[in-house]
Structure formats: C-alpha cells, structure tokens
Design a protein that fits this description.
Elements: H1 7-12, H2 33-42, H3 45-49, H4 52-66, E1 70-72, H5 79-83, E2 88-91, E3 95-98, H6 111-131, E4 137-143, H7 145-154, H8 162-170, H9 172-195, E5 200-205, H10 213-234, E6 240-244, H11 249-259, E7 263-265, H12 272-276, E8 282-286, H13 288-293, H14 295-308, E9 314-318, H15 328-338
Parallel strand pairs: 1-4, 4-5, 5-6, 6-7, 7-8, 8-9
Antiparallel strand pairs: 2-3
Helix pairs in contact: 4-6, 6-9, 7-8, 7-9, 8-9, 9-10, 10-11, 14-15
Length: 340
C-alpha cells in the first residue's frame, strides 16, 4: 500500500496504515539513561527546554533507540505562560511553580515578544528536522487554554482545577478574557512551530476531566475551536491532534465534532469498542503501567488494542505519558511487537 507521505500524517488524512504508526507521549524523558545523564549536566529541566542543542538531543534520543514513527519536540506547555510574562520554575520532586494570576491584566500581549521568548522551540524544531529521518513525522505541541489557566490560577502544577473553576464561575467575563489571551498565544505558537518544520501539532488539555458539560463546552471546546480556526487560517493544511485527557465519552465526541481537529487522542479509560466506532482518526490508549509491567500482560493488551482498531485510521500511543520507572527494554519490545 502507498501512503501520502509520512505514515502518521497518512492516518491523520483518514487512511488506514498497517501496522499502525507509533509514538509515545513523554517518549523523551526520565526513563532513558541517556536523558538522565544529560539532565545531570544541565542542572534543571527548564534549562534543557530552553536550550535548542539540548532539546534537540533529547528529542532525538528515543528515535535513535526505538525508531518511533514520530518525534515530538522536547519542550513544556508552560513556555506559553512564560511568554506571557510569568516566571516559571521547576522544583525538584515537587514540579512547576509560577506566579498565580487573578486577572489577564498585566500579561504580555505583544506577539513579537511571545515569539522571542518561544524562539528556542522553533530553533529546536529546525535542528531536529535537519537530523530526523525523512519518514519520521515531527510533532510540535502546546497546552490548551483551560489547562494553562489552571496553572496560572493555582500557581502550581498537578490536577488543580479549584482556583480556575472558582474564577470561571465567579467572574466568567474575566476568565474568558484569560482564555482568549492564552488561545491567541497558543495559536501563534502552533503556527510558528508549523513554520519551523513541524509536520503536525498536538494540543494537550491535560486537566480537561471532571468538568460539568456546560463548563467543558465553554472552557475546553470553544477555546480549542478558536485556536484551530486561527491555525487553519494561517496554515490551511495543518494537521492537528486534540487531547482532552479523561473527558467523558460524550465529551470526546463533542470535542471531536466541534473543534475541527484532524484526530483525537484518548486516555486509558476509553473503551476499545467505542474507539473502533469513532468516526475520525484516533490515537491511544495503552495504560502506561502496562508498559512498566511488560511481558505477557503488555503483549496481550497491545494485541487486543491493535486488533480492535484494525481497519480504522489509528495511531498507537499511551493513554498518558511514559512513566519514569518504565524499563527501556519494554518500550523496545512494544515497538517490535507492533511491527511484527
């Protein structure tokens, strides 16, 4: 079978590709000894994100080891709050910390300054593109406005929705102003990543779960649709994957129908029979703990997922990111089994 370009892009165009293309969220990171060695030299995660040479090397490490069908740029969703003028720090064994906000007033609104602060990502993409095998898809990404708003309202990471929810309920006009500003910056960032060499981009809405349907529509779906529209206005052929992690099944369907994304990534809880009936390219959703487990348990789960998605446009991935304790040999076994 001939595919129209890279295998992952063919899936996003609606084609069935067998075996399915594979990449893993957080495929570059702490489970790899070569990453840990570089991390020890760098001194901080944030330093690595903003050093194009280091970020390029980290992006390429899992491609060299495993030959994934896609490389995703090594960066972080909090580069967007940084571009908006917030100080971002990463505390060891704690996670990200940033200055909380209670208003969009005072946040940076100049796209030229956004681009300057986000320029390490674009330089990294250019360097990775030059070093990447021609058949390998290069992915850019950004956090979605709702997820970024949860960080900005709480001033910290983790599934901390309380401050953002209260803001949205108490002062919806002010909160939607924040979402609009975040969306403008995210759209500009994705457009620039596509211009720098990304073949496709993914929008991570990591904290989309647990929202009432009306809030999900206002805070997750509407801002994402606005971003997709802005990206497509600048890049009509852009390929975009959406990941509203742990949404309800009805939420995933509504998101897919309304946002205009080309494909949707789903979390571990999404049932395989529902996935196989989904009417757009779908990405997912092996439990990351099965990748930690390895052996027969992982092999059976991989086979079941691939069998259930046979004949459908499908990208093999996890339901969330690779865990730190994952043995690299289990990742190698996963890729080998998929390509048998």
């Amino acid at each position: 079978m001939k595919y129209s370009g890279k295998r992952l892009i063919s899936v996003l165009e609606g084609q069935v590709v067998s075996p399915p293309p594979v990449w893993l969220m957080r495929q570059a990171g702490r489970y790899l000894p070569e990453y840990r060695a570089l991390r020890a030299k760098a001194g901080s995660f944030w330093t690595m994100c903003n050093d194009p040479d280091m970020a390029t090397e980290i992006t390429l490490q899992p491609i060299r080891r495993f030959g994934f069908d896609a490389a995703i740029i090594f960066s972080d969703i909090l580069t967007v709050p940084f571009a908006l003028g917030r100080t971002v720090t990463f505390e060891e064994n704690v996670g990200p910390r940033l200055e909380p906000v209670t208003s969009a007033e005072g946040l940076e609104r100049d796209p030229a300054i956004w681009r300057e602060k986000l320029s390490p990502a674009y330089e990294t993409l250019k360097k990775v593109r030059a070093a990447l095998p021609a058949e390998t898809t290069l992915l850019g990404f950004a956090g979605a406005p709702w997820t970024l708003a949860t960080y900005l309202a709480a001033g910290r990471g983790g599934d901390e929705q309380k401050a953002a929810k209260l803001w949205g309920y108490r002062n919806p006009e002010s909160f939607e102003g924040l979402l609009d500003l975040l969306g403008d910056c995210v759209a500009a960032h994705l457009i620039a990543q596509l211009g720098a060499g990304a073949d496709a981009v993914q929008i991570f809405d990591s904290w989309a779960s647990g929202l009432p349907a009306e809030a999900f529509a206002r805070w997750v779906v509407a801002p994402t649709k606005r971003i997709v529209d802005k990206v497509r206005a600048a890049k009509p052929d852009a390929k975009i994957i959406g990941f509203p992690r742990a949404a309800t099944l009805q939420g995933y369907e509504f998101y897919a129908r309304e946002t205009g994304v080309d494909g949707i990534s789903v979390d571990t809880a999404a049932p395989q029979d529902w996935m196989s009936d989904f009417d757009m390219p779908i990405q997912g959703n092996l439990d990351p703990l099965l990748l930690v487990t390895g052996g027969d348990a992982m092999a059976r789960a991989v086979d079941a997922l691939v069998d259930s998605m046979r004949g459908r446009p499908f990208i093999f991935n996890l339901g969330h990111g690779v865990l730190q304790e994952t043995p690299p040999e289990h990742v190698a076994a996963l890729v080998a089994r998929l390509r048998k």
